[in-house]
Write a structure and sequence with these properties.
This protein is mainly alpha-helical. The chain has 10 helices and no strands. The protein is flat.
């Protein structure tokens, strides 16, 4: 589906009218990119596929609530981002996963360095803290630091001024730094987010 706003409005209107063709068009446009995005964070093909499917199920189920000016890209990636975080939270609390981690730790390859383990823990911690940010700040950090979008593009997508984007990004990063308890983790956060 082209970036044409009028075309997107037509597809949304058709989707709201229960058009399976419109849904299929949206799916074929976004599914592959969405899978890559989910895989990057879930790190398993099975989880990424499940999150993609759940994202499109939620889109279909909420089709009647869509507004004609909805930005499908933002909506779909926001839904999937929430599902990724929910999946991580669920996994972290699952006794089977805890047992799996204990077994993995016992038979871990000796080449897996302490740095790699710290990075994994750190990544999970950052995403968990990001989930607690106000919606606008979370979206700005996601666009700026995970999708590597410039302030101008973020401002356009979110209908904000560039200065507001810069201010909110600064506030969000300050909040994230303050919530990291370990000084080493805070330095790592700065490196990760500003690299």
């Amino acid at each position: 589906m082209p970036e044409d706003t009028e075309k997107e409005r037509e597809v949304i209107a058709a989707l709201k009218s229960d058009s399976q063709d419109a849904f299929n068009e949206i799916y074929s446009t976004y599914a592959r990119r969405l899978y890559s995005y989910c895989y990057k964070f879930s790190r398993t093909a099975e989880d990424a596929e499940e999150i993609v499917q759940d994202t499109f199920v939620r889109l279909w189920n909420s089709r009647g609530k869509l507004k004609s000016d909805t930005n499908l890209n933002n909506l779909i990636f926001t839904i999937s981002h929430r599902l990724v975080i929910n999946a991580w939270h669920k996994r972290m609390l699952d006794p089977r996963y805890i047992t799996f981690l204990e077994i993995q730790e016992q038979v871990a390859d000796s080449r897996r360095t302490e740095h790699a383990v710290e990075y994994d823990e750190f990544s999970w911690r950052v995403l968990s803290l990001m989930d607690k940010l106000p919606t606008t700040q979370r979206k700005i950090v996601q666009y700026a630091k995970m999708e590597d979008l410039p302030s101008k593009e973020i401002a356009r997508r979110m209908n904000l001024s560039e200065q507001t984007v810069r201010n909110q990004l600064s506030l969000a990063l300050k909040t994230l730094r303050s919530q990291m308890k370990d000084g080493k983790m805070a330095v790592g956060l700065l490196f990760l987010l500003w690299a």
